[in-house]
Predict the 3D structure of the following.
Amino acid sequence: MWFMRQAGRSLPEYRRVRADVPMLEACARPDMIVEITMQPVRRYGVDAAIYFSDIVVPLRAIGVGIDIKAGVGPVVEQPIRDADGVGQLRDLEPDDVWYVTEAVGELVGELGERPLIGFAGGPFTLASYLIEGGPSKNHERTKAMMYGQPELWHRLMRRLSVITAEFLRVQVAAGASAVQLFDSWAGALSAADYRESVLPHASWIFDQLANLDVPRIHFGVGTGELLPSLSEAGADVVGVDWRVPLGEAAQRVRRGTALQGNLDPATLFAPEEVVNERARGILTQGRAAEGHVFNLGHGVLPDTDPDALARLTDFVHEETARG
Ligand code: CP3
C-alpha cells in the first residue's frame, strides 16, 4: 500500500521544507527530493515511496516555459497550438534531468528493500496542460486539436511519448523499481476517442518500458469506461478511482492485470470507523483481482489530517497481515 500524493501539502514537515523554495526548484534539488520523498515513508510506514517531482518536470527540463502556481497548478507561458509549438519539443537527454538520477540513487540507498515508484504524466494530461496553457475543466482547446487537426495532435502525442518514455527510463536506470503513468485527465474522453487518439501512444510508452522488467502502473480519474483501454495499453497494474468497485474493475481489465486503489480520498475526513469499514470493503473487493495494491482513488487532499492516513496505514497492514 501507498498513497498517491502522499508527499506534499498535507504534511507540516513538507510545508516547512518548501516554505521558501518554489515547487519546480524543489523538484530539481536532490537534497529536497530525497527529504520530501522520505517524509511520508517515515511518518506512515507505507510500503512504497513515490519519487517527489511533478508531471511537468520533463517539459521544463527540455526548455518549455512552464511553472507551477500555488493553488492553481501548471501554467504555460506560450501554449502549444500549432506545428511550430510542437516542433519546439525536443528529445529529453539524461543530462537534462541529472538531479533525477542523483536523487533516485540516494533514495534507493536509503529505502533499502522498500520500493521506489517512479512516475510521469500521461500523454493526454500533458497535452492538455500544454495546449490549454493551464488547468482546464473542459479541455476544449485540447479536444479541438484532437478532433480538428488529428495529424498535428498525433505529432504532439508522439513527441510527448518519446519524452515520457525517456523520463521513466532514466528513473528505472537509476534504481526505481516500479513506474506509474498518471494520465489523470484521460477520463474526460469517450472510450472511442481515447482509443483513437491516446491509446496508441500510451501503448508505445509501455512497450518502450517492457524490457526494463519493472511493474508498470497506469492510472486516470473518471476512467470507469476506459478501464479496458487503460489495461490494453499494456500496464501490469491499472489504477482505479473510487467510482468503480474493484470487483467490477477486475472484470474490465485484461486477465492477469493487478488493480490499484481505490478509497475515496474524501473518506479520510469521516470518522475512523467509517474509514476502516470502507478500507475493509476495498480489501475484500480487491481479492477479485489478480493482485491488489491498496491506495486511494486519487491523490491525498491537501487538508487531510496526516494522523488519519497513519491510522489507515496501520489498519490496512493489520488487516492484510491477518490474511
Ligand atoms: O506524493 C506524490 O504523489 C508525489 C508527488 C506528485 C506531485 N505531483 C507533487 C506536487 C505527483 C505524483 C504529482 C503528479 C501530478 N501533478 C499530477 C498527476 C496526479 C494527479 O494528482 O492527478 C498532476 C495532474 C499534476 C499537476 C499539478 N501539480 C497540479 C494539478 C498541482 C496542484 C496545484 C495546487 O497548488 O493546487 C501541482 C502542484 C504539486 N505537485 C504540488 C505537489 C506536492 C503542490 C505544490 C506545492 O506544494 O506548492
In short: Residues 4-9, 18, 23, 50, 52, 54-55, 68, 70-74, 119, 125, 182, 184, 299 surround coproporphyrinogen III (CB under 6 Å).
